[in-house]
Amino acid sequence: MALDYKIIVSKNPVFDKCPDCGAIGTLRRSRAHNTKERLIKALTPFKLYRCRKCGWRGYRSTITVTMGSVKALLLYLVLAAITAYIVLFAMKFVS
Questions:
Q1: How far apart are CA 28 and CA 11, in angstroms?
Q2: pLDDT of amino acid 13
Q3: Fewer Cβ close by (within 10 Å): the C or N end of the chain?
Q4: 34 with 42: CB under 8 angstroms?
Q5: Going residue by residue through the chain (95 aa), what tens digit of pLDDT does each one get?
Q6: C-alpha to C-alpha distance for 28 and 45, rounded to whole angstroms
Q7: What is the Cα–Cα distance from 84 to 66, expressed in whole angstroms?
Q8: Residue 23 vs residues 4, 11, 62: alpha-carbon distances, Å
Q9: What's the chain look like in SS3?
């Protein structure tokens, strides 16, 4: 089994179920109607979606955090801390 260390996992919410009616595969992208919606759409990973079945309209995230991504992030932080410790030790040894 190969380990896949991705920090951010991209997903397509179109295949998610509707948060209102629970239908699967009925979400589609929706256009922003005002400046607030345009800013949220441009500056965050949230995009507007609408349900074809019940008409629900709202934001869904296009990224997801998995347990694997949390483990990868922790691994990178530990490696950075170890590297910083080695560099500090080497700087003290040299001077």
A1: 14
A2: 76
A3: N
A4: no
A5: 455 556 666 777 777 889 899 888 889 999 999 999 999 999 998 999 999 999 999 998 888 777 777 888 899 999 999 999 999 998 887 76
A6: 16
A7: 27
A8: 31, 18, 19
A9: CCCCCCCCEECCHHHCECCCCCCECCEEECCCCCHHHHHHHHHCCEEEEEECCCCCEEEEECEECCHHHHHHHHHHHHHHHHHHHHHHHHHHHHC
Q: Which residues lie closer than 8 Å to 36 by C-beta, 6 or more apart?
A: none
Number of residues in the chain: 95
* pLDDT reported for residue 3: 53
In the block, residue with structure tokens 């992208």: 29
